[in-house]
Amino acid sequence: MAFQLPELGYDYGALDKSIDAQTMEIHYSKHHGAYVTNCNNAIAGTEWDDKPIEEIMANISKVPPAVRNNGGGHFNHSLFWSILSPNGGGEPTGALADDIAGTFGSFSAFRDQMNTAGATRFGSGWAWLIVGPEGKLAVCSTPNQDNPTMDIAEIKGTPILGIDVWEHAYYLRYQNRRPDYLKAIWDVMSWDEVATRYAAAK
Ligand code: MN3
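^ thats the input. predicted complex w/ manganese (III) ion below
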């Protein structure tokens, strides 16, 4: 069963307070679309072509580089669209909020750490909030389309929030100002979805 683009769940213009419609359309239909197509082509006829994306990620050291880049791209972007919402913003509540405050000191300290992880990622990559192997929250960053579920990842865990810091994610509106994009993205963060992923990962 070939991978497919997931439903976006909102219009291209729905996140406009943080991400413009043209960026969303190109990012979703062209960039993510190409990752899906290229991943499907790379796994076609191999032992991986009927495996869930999670299993492919966990065995990424055994697959060709095209699967690492494009399968990683499919996994990462599927998560990314899901944790954004036109109704997002504000701060988390409940157990996730308590854990963030306990781990990082405060919500704003956590957000600063995420923004720093994204801003200091040289070139292209992602900033992540993960639930680590011992159930502890941590912030980390990966290059290109790598992610913390890959067996080759330096820091491993289950990502519950990921921010794309490739230039294609923000360049049309923010040009070279990646920190401004990072500041704005919290206004469309779906804490409901992040909390659901947090509960599942714990
Ligand atoms: Mn992207």
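The mean pLDDT is 97.
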